[in-house]
What does this fold into?
Amino acid sequence: MTKSEFKTFLKAVPKAELHIHIEAVITMAGVKKLYKNRFGKEMSKEEQDALFAYNDLNGFIQSFLKIQDMYTSEKDFNLVFKELEKYLVKNGINYCEAFFAPSAFIKKGFSYKKMVDIFHKQIKRIKEKDGITIKLLMDVSRTFGCENAMKNYEMFKSYPCEDIIGIGLGGAEAKGPAKEFAPVFELALKEGYKAVAHAGEDVGPESIWDSINYLHAQRIGHGVTAIQDKKLMEELVKTKLPIEICITSNTFTKKVVKLARYHPVRKYFDMGMMVIINTDDPVFFKTTLLDEFWICVKSLKFTMDEIKQLVKNSYIASFMTDEEKKAALKAVDAAWKIK
It folds into this structure.
């Protein structure tokens, strides 16, 4: 099966994506529009090149923050969700759990309530128009510290929204150890919300252990450094704690793996870990969910039966209800017709 044939086939199969940042789904055209609104001029080729000239996780985060700084009002999120909608439709995704990071926008003076109102309106519109379900996880962010993370959680509680189901820990992993954010996560879980954490992306397996032991994370984002700790891998096999794999993103950071064919997801899957395939930040890493699955086939030698299991894993690892998961898995089986 060629790449084109594979992507055409897989697009027609319903899929879920669970590790994606809404601000990073916006296309280059969208970035240019934000830039023009912000600065009153066209973005030059040199400025565009400089924006994406990074070679490590911290450099990427700084570029992420620069794009966030281009937003001029809460209304810019209408553009974000229209771009997200295009991405989901293009990749045949019918269920998505996405991160949003409010800190930079709140610091700019944006109203959290106005942002959330736009989120809800757009998510409802996408559901009615495309039949796609979107749930959100607030990234409380290591970048700004635990006190800020708690303030974000308090905002989250003050303006409840049915589309926002929990919190996640992202940002600069090396600068914000997971255990420092335990008070926020303990409170969120106690009050019935979902909790996930980026861990083992740019820091060793101790970051994953801390996310398990202190944050009680229900999924681990990235988790590539688990490969360095046999005991941790055995624990992940035993518990089936889902690992949100982002191959292109992980290859970019070069912390553990420099080439896709050496990504530990192959070993993780073979060992029996619950792994799921995601994109992380499509515009920054020039990838899509269909591309990530193709990498699994081309570079990591996953069979089509294994690809099918990976597709199913994303529903199994999601925060859907058991009935919703059952229906989703049945739909995958119905669509999986290889000639």
